[in-house]
Design goal:
The complex is a heterodimer of chains A (202) and B (150). Chain A has 202 residues and is α+β, with helices and mostly antiparallel strands. Helices cover 37% and strands 25% of the residues of chain A. The N terminus of chain B is likely disordered. Classes of the chains: A alpha+beta (202), B mainly beta (150). The complex binds copper (II) ion.
Chain lengths: 202, 150
Amino acid sequence: MHWVRNSVIILVLLFAGGAAWYGMQDQASQLPVNTRLGGDFTLTDQTGERFHSDSLDGKVVLLFFGFTSCPDICPATLARVTQARRMLADEGHGDDVQVVFITFDPARDTPEHLNKYLSFFGDAVIGLTGTEEEIATVAEQFGVVYLKTPSASGDGSDGADAGYDFSHSDFVYLLDTQGRVRKLFQNDEDIDLMVKDARTLL
Amino acid sequence: MRVLFCNVPTLKRLLAIVVLSAPGLAAAQLQLTDAWVRAVPPVSSGTAGYFVLQNNGTEPVTVTGVSASFAHHVMMHSMARNDDGLRQMQHVDDVTVAPGEEIAFVPGGMHLMIMGMDAVPSPGERVEICLQLKGGDQLCHDFEVRREQP
Ligand SMILES: [Cu+2]
């Protein structure tokens, strides 16, 4: 019954090989580099200072776009992404992970407003604004589409709001320590998965 | 009309039992659960409210409007992908819940759009929001202000 013993040996070898392969994959991230999206950019942060993306080098970044007058998706995404960062901070990676929020709405989201708004989510969020052209350029780099639309809440004449919203694509981008896009999450992605994927880049 | 509330907070959800003095009213067979308002920064111009409304009665129930004492405008919005594949909010005039059915207002979907707040409520606070029903009834309920979905 040599074939039985041989089969067992082959199975053991296969298993060992698989385990070794899995172990290797565990060391380096399996997330492919997205070469189509991302790149360097310069905007203005919530302190009013110019901000260049190279100051994010060395950090794993969770980046997304939105506008603070959005009551539903944007605060929800901010809450989720900052929670993911907190979980990594609890593992000792607080200084290695950065959350970045880029607004579509420079008219209402001034640096001062962004500063007040974002402080609610902890002190670890970088909020970026700029001219409409600057923001459009960065959005294009990340393949983000956004459209200024009449507000669903009225035209603002009765003080209900300022009369416009943005409909927009709403991914969360995971960038590695060299600023390369490694993954796009749906904005309602499981927080544990965001943490797990970010961890492979640390 | 008298609406009596009995809030039973549990770890995960809030359950309200609505008792009405007069039988046959639309609100009598309604159960409102998972009621919460998103905690947002004090400088926010608006926030969103969520709930599940279940119709245990034999007649359809239509919500025609929403109001809250702490906000000047509360609207019902849907969230849909538009032609460009982008998410867009849309105003909804009324919502009907068929007998035996329920409707869920959840993040990323239907939501209450709360604008013109006198003061933005803080996490942990409770705010009362009232649903106006077709026929003149009103269903009021405490919503918990919280940062995360329950
Ligand atoms: Cu809305």
